[in-house]
Amino acid sequence: MDQIERQIISLLQADGRLSNVALAEQIGLSESPTYRRVKQLEDLGVIQGYAALADQRLLGLEVTAFVQVTMERQPDSATDAFHARVAAEPHIMECHAMSGSHDYLMKVVARSIDHFSELCMEQILKFPGVQHVESSFSLKEIKHSRVLPA
Q1: Please, are residues 82 and 127 in contact by the beta-carbon 8 Å criterion?
Q2: On the chain, which terminus has fewer CB atoms closer than 10 Å, C or N?
């Protein structure tokens, strides 16, 4: 990836609504080569999509919890079922397979502690293969970024 492509990625991460004309001006290329480069970055999967970033609290999601999940030893089919349930639950914002003492780490958002409790006890604990969960709550967000260093 060359410097211009890195610049395109940085600019589009800062403002995904940036027009091709404005993008071309900022990187110092004409519109056609700029469009081709953006399209190529999209086709290669470097740029995976565009989204509006919403304020979690203004949407009524006051609670952020980090849930460590320990799984029972199980066949791959149960793991696949667990992954499918995680993917289907919109309050699970992220889920990572982990090294260490827990198998997964999830970032979960909820309207309230009661709502989180319901999500955890009625959903997550009943996902296929889940043996144990341990939750920690965010008291204050210090940094939140979706911008990757390019």
Answers
A1: yes
A2: N
Nearest-5° Cα angle at 94, 90 to 97:
130
| 62/131 same-domain check | yes
Tokens of 36: 């081709």
Q: Are residues 87 and 124 in the same domain?
A: yes
| DSSP strands (E only) in 1-150 | 63-71, 92-97, 104-110, 130-137
| Same domain (yes/no): 61, 31 | no
pLDDT over 90 at 77, yes or no: no
Please tell me whether residues 39 and 69 are part of one structural domain: no
Do 63 and 130 lie in one domain? The reply is yes
Asked if 64 and 107 touch (Cβ cutoff 8 Å), the reply is: yes
94 token code pair: 């992220």
The pTM score is 0.86
CATH number at residue 129: 3.30.70.920
Distance of CA 96 to the CA centre of its chain: 10
Helices 20-27, 3-14: crossing angle, 10 deg rounding: 130
> Which residue intervals of 18-112 are DSSP H helices?
20-27, 31-43, 76-88
Is 64 part of a structural domain of the chain? yes
